[in-house]
Structure formats: structure tokens, C-alpha cells
Design goal:
Layout lengths: L3 E2 L11 H12 L1 H15 L5 H23 L8 H9 L1 H35 L7 H18 L1 H29 L6 H5 L1 H4 L7 H12 L16 H30 L12 H10 L2 H36 L9 E2 L5 H20 L4 H34 L5 H24 L1 H4 L21 H23 L4 H8 L2
Helix pairs in contact: 1-7, 1-11, 1-13, 2-10, 2-11, 3-10, 3-11, 3-15, 3-16, 4-5, 4-15, 5-6, 5-13, 5-14, 5-15, 5-18, 6-13, 6-14, 7-11, 7-13, 10-16, 12-13, 13-14, 15-16, 15-18
Amino acid sequence: MSKETTDNSLRKNRLGVLGIVFFVVAASAPLVGMTGAVPVAMVLGNQAAVPGTYLFVGIVLLLFSVGFATMSSKVTNAGAFFAYIGRGLGKNLGIGSAFSMIVGYVTIQLAIYGFFGFQMHSYFADRGIDIDWYIYVLVAFVIVTALSLLSVDVGAKVLGALMILEIVSLLVSGVIIMSKHAGSVDLGASFSPSSIFAGGFAGGAGIAIAFAFASFIGFEATAIYGEESKDPKRTVPRATYWAIGIITLLFTFVSLAVVAGYNGDLSKLTATPADVLGLVQSDVGSWMVDVMSILVMSSLFAGLLAFQNANSRYVFALGRAGVLPKAMAKTNASGSPLAGVIVTSSLAFIVFTAFKLANLDPFANLFTWMSAITSVAIILVEILVSLAVIVFFMKNKGENFLKVFVAPVLAIIGLLIGEYLLMSRFNLLGSLASADVTDPTAADAIWKLSPLGWILVLLPFIALVLGFIWGLINKKDEAALSEDILS
């Protein structure tokens, strides 16, 4: 292990635009989203209009990123979102948002561990090697922790290689499928507003939009690496736009290819990864299915590494600010947040081990329950960031009005719609419908959650309130807190 140090800053000038883009696009796991989220959005949502839905959500997040990127030129901090909210809306709300973000990032990492264990077990069991999912998770846990402790540069190179292969496989498959079914492309059915919003927010459109928002989780991590980037005032905004653009175009194009591949008749879909992989096998070849099956596992691993880095940097920033014990702000000789890695890795280990001891399913329980929480937490904080941008630049004049007011206001409207849909349809994302619900996809099933569902959906808000209260009563090292969040 690298030599420990008490330095409380991360290594400078180690990441460029491409390095940051590798981390955040890998965190969004596009291959996993295409094989997992897209078929479900098509079957339960607005059918052939899913490509337009991804484009719509991408535009909303681009609007959000305008204010977000402008703020990043004023604030460079490993805590990113909580620092932005602290500067705009006050330190107590900033601390509360940090607690919510930690809930979001810890739960998505746990969700990916569950999906990874499930996928590895299934893949090798089909080939006669039956090893328990927990063993695969343990191996991944050790490797991810080691890479995080070594250096973010090592992580960026690993993520970059995996992400390039993942995107190439999707693009190649999409181009081949599209070329074979070009005559089945119906742009009106996929991109017209009447198609995208068919069924209304309580029906098909709402379900598809909810899944689309969930597919973008991870892009917001660009600012977390500001301290370690080269020229952060330029690097972070560029990386943000590139990340959102890549994710939007990739999901839009490949989902359009899937619609065309089924000749517009999506009644054959089963809302499982087999919908996409089966199309790839028939139109591209079994060799690509084999490649994608392996890349799904590597994509999940890439997501684990990306969120491990994000988690540890949030803990580091909170330690440096005095919100958490100062020991959390320690870095090692390679400049990685040593204490943050240890704390977040230990938490992940405890939770996925508890799921194993309780004989809970890695996919049906660990993945679905944790990923449902993440979506709500991230969008909650994004709304607060947009508000913070508006308030901050009302007090600090000089920036373009469109960037710091119009774009954030439009983003808030879109994000509020997304948050409402995610929460009202939480019973779909997490399979947590109340006992009296027979069809969770029905319009009258919204907001009908089980007691556990209500606890999970409110967890990010509970964390926000607890963090706000902790900010009110925590007076230790007020100067450090103010310097890191308010100055």
C-alpha cells in the first residue's frame, strides 16, 4: 500500500478532459443501460418513442450543465455539488446535500456490486462453472479498492480502455442493425412530441422518462475531479458537455436501431437483456453477443471503479471541511484520498456481506433496491445545484444571464418532472409496490408503495434533513468549513 500522508489536497494536473470523460461515461455504464433499461422503457413506457425520450432527457441535463459548468469556473472542490450548494444556498444545506449525494453514490455502487455478482455467476454457470455470486463480488472489491488506492491515473487508463470497447461494440451493432432495417425507421414515431409524451406522465411517457433519467446517473461526477484536473475552469465544463453529449447520442442512436430492428413491432420484447442481445445475434452474429456479454461485466466493473473514486472524494471533501473527522481528509503518497477509500470500501463490504448472510438475491434485492434510491438522490441534489447557481450569480454579477438564470430555471422544471416521475414510479424501479397493486404499470398505481418502498424513496430526503441539522449543531472548526464551502 502506498505511504500514508496527512496532506489534505489531491494531486494537481493529473487529469485532462478525456480522463474525466472516461470516468463519468464509464459510471453511466452505457452497455448495461442499453441491455437493461432500454428494453424495460420500451415495453412499459412509450414504445418506439424511447429514442426521443433519451434525447429529451439529454437536453434537460445539458440545460442543467450550463449553470453547473459556469459554477465550476468559480468553485473547484472535490465535493463538487455540496460545495456549489454551500456557496449558493448556505453551508447547512450544502452539508445536507452532501449527505444525500453520499447516499446516492454508495447505493449505486452497491447496486453495481449486486449486478456484477449476478452477471458473473450467470455467465460462468452457463459454461459449467458454478461459483457463488459473493465470491465474484469479493474479487472485484479487492481489485477496485487497490486501483483506487494506487492512483486515479491508473483508474482512468483502465476505464478508458473498457469504455472504448463498450462504445465501439454498441456503435458497430447499431450501424449494422440500422443498415439492415433502414426502411423501418420512423422518425415521427420516435421523435415527435406527441409520441414521446404519449400516455401522459402517469402512464407510458412517465415510465420511459423515469428510466431515461436513471440511465444518465454518473455524468455529474465531472466536477468532483476539478482539483485533480488540468486547468479545471476549462476542463470541467468541456468534460461535462462531452459526457452528456456522448451518453445522449449513444442511447438515442442505438435505441433507434433497436426499434428499427424489430421493424417497429415492439410487442415481441420481453423487457430483458435478451431483447437487445437477441437482435444483435440475429443481425450481427453470435460473436458480438459473446463480446457484449463480456463487456457487460467489464462495464459493471468500470462503474464500480468510477463510483469508488467519486465516493472516496466526497468523504475526503467532507473531512477537509470539518463536517466529518479530519482523518477523512488524509491522502496517500500517490495523492489518492486514502481514508475516503477505506471508509467507502468498508461500508460497501459490510452491506453486500449482510445481503449474502440474509440470503437476499444480488439482482432482485441488492441491485433493484439500491439503484432505485440513487436516482432520487442525484436528481434531488441537481435541483438544489440549479437553485444555488441562480442565487449565487444573483449576488455575484457579471455572468451571462442565459447561462446563470434561464438555463437553470428550465433545468429545474425538467428535473422536477423527472423527480416526480421517479418517485411516483419507484414501485417499478425497485419492485416495491404496495400489496393492493396488481399492475404497477397502470396509471392509478403511482405513489402506491410498500412500507419498505416509502423508507427507501425518502432516504435521500432524510439524509438531506439530517445533514442540514448536523450543519446547524456542528460548530467544530467553523473556519475550515467556511473556507471549503463558503469562501
